[in-house]
Amino acid sequence: MSHAVFLGIDIGTTATKVILIDTEGHIVGESSRPATLHSPKANWAEEDANEWWRNVCQAVPECLVKAGVGASQVHAVGVSGMVPTTILVDEQGKPLRRSIQQNDARSHVEIDEFKINMDEKAVFQRTGSAITQQSIGPKLRWIAKNQPELYRQAVWVMGSYDYINYKLTDQPVLESNWALESGLYDLHAKDWIGELLELSHLRRDQLPPVFNPSEVIGIISAQAAREAGLQQGTPVVAGSADHVASAFSVGLKENGDLLVKLGGAGDILYSLDRLEIDERLFIDYHVIPGLFLLNGCMASSGSIIKWFRNNFAPELDYPALDAEAAGIPAGSGGVVLLPYFIGEKTPIFDPLARGILFGLTLQNTRANIYHAILEGISYGFYQHLEVLAERGFSINLVRVANGGARSALWRQVTADVIGYPLEEVANHPGSSLGAAFVAGMGVKGFDSWEDIERYIQVAAVTQPDMHNHEKYKQLFQLYKEIYQKNKHIFRQLAKIEGVTAE
């Protein structure tokens, strides 16, 4: 298959990305289209699945043209995406409403109802997932209560990349990590849990069959071929959750490998050669059969930086913001940020948590606050390392990826806070590379999962300043204490604002 290329599509929070790779370690084409995150109410996060499909139909032909590749040379397609998003599909195959995103925190009342009706510890032992704002069941229960007419029209429930797979093949399927992260799936029996489906007002027949990442789930349909510029009959694999695909494509293949993703949300992933679960973390199937990933996901990280720039420094680009804050010493002049701008997922699982800027004085500048934002996000990552240390898990290497990895300041602050060198992967396209490689494995285009190394080159290593790290360890204790002392206030504030009535 020396002339074969494989297409990877990533359905991301801020963009839909498309990539073409050959079998020799080359990225032969890339294209992308922006995606829109909608937050019409506090703690809501939604996107338009129709926009994702329009993006695919524009970006795929553009990528083929850029690469000088014909549709017949694409030997397989893989899709990755945000997980676990919630999309309701009607009998015509159309989304009934905008997706409810994985970091949406509207369903805290329904989360409490799940906890009242189920034994939380038993659910965790069966699913590997705590009942949290990421859980699919409470979100479906929210829709059933608040939009019952719409909910009754739902024929299928699926996730972001599952929906794109459906548009490509006409086959409704779920990839295994959507099932696992849904909180409705028995990790051991590999089947849906009836009591949880009932609480969600969900029928078993509304859940498509579950496939593993590199399994072929269908072929490009005639209509998808016309709309997306692909060849009818091209195999499509189940694909992967975006964070799992990204972790694999930066080289997390061994026990003890760690990835820090500096994106709109903050992900931290730890590779394991055995099944281990922890109530403070998510568990994922690796794309490599037999491996697992412990997964921490912060609801907002880079999105806070974007918010700050748009509202307080619109005249500056991000490199200019970095330059302005580069001289700020560790600790940001006593300013500490809690990065809980849309609640928080791991490791505290508090959908009502709010962002806090603590310690402000008249001497603080915009640069102090920006630097404190980078530190606050990094404290969130460090809290996950604390969990791993408590479990006795050692760290062999730490790699850093996503758009924030291009910021030398953000990398340095992160390295200083967590106390480990960060290996930045050169020109890393993200999850789309993993999706394309998984597609190749699905049709035997590669001999081994080790072949991913052909695409990986470490550009730079950011060494931590251990003097700063010692200071950050003290500030980190304050970071945790600020949250604990304000936790009850978050719930009172939500009650006053009427958020609990949503």
Describe the structure.
The chain has 502 residues and is α+β, with helices and mostly antiparallel strands. It has two domains: 239 residues, Nucleotidyltransferase, domain 5; 215 residues, Nucleotidyltransferase, domain 5. The chain is 38% helix and 20% strand. It has a seven-stranded mixed β-sheet. Strands 3-2-1-5-15 form a five-stranded mixed β-sheet. Helix 2 crosses helix 4. The longest helix has 32 residues. The N and C termini lie far apart (54 Å).
Could you list some keywords that capture this structure?
16 helices; 7-stranded mixed sheet; Nucleotidyltransferase, domain 5; 20% strand; 38% helix; 502 residues; globular; alpha+beta; 5-stranded mixed sheet
At a glance:
With 502 residues, this protein is an alpha+beta fold. The protein has helices at 49-67, 108-117, 120-127, 136-146, 148-152, 160-169, 176-181, 194-199, 222-228, 242-249, 302-312, 318-325, 366-390, 408-418, 431-442, 466-497, and strands spanning 5-11, 15-21, 27-34, 46-47, 74-81, 87-89, 99-100, 156-158, 174-175, 185-186, 191-192, 210-211, 216-219, 235-237, 240-241, 257-262, 266-272, 282-285, 292-298, 336-338, 356-358, 397-401, 422-425, 458-462. It has 2 domains: 5-243, ATPase, nucleotide binding domain (Nucleotidyltransferase, domain 5), CATH 3.30.420.40; 251-427 and 465-502, ATPase, nucleotide binding domain (Nucleotidyltransferase, domain 5, 2-Layer Sandwich).
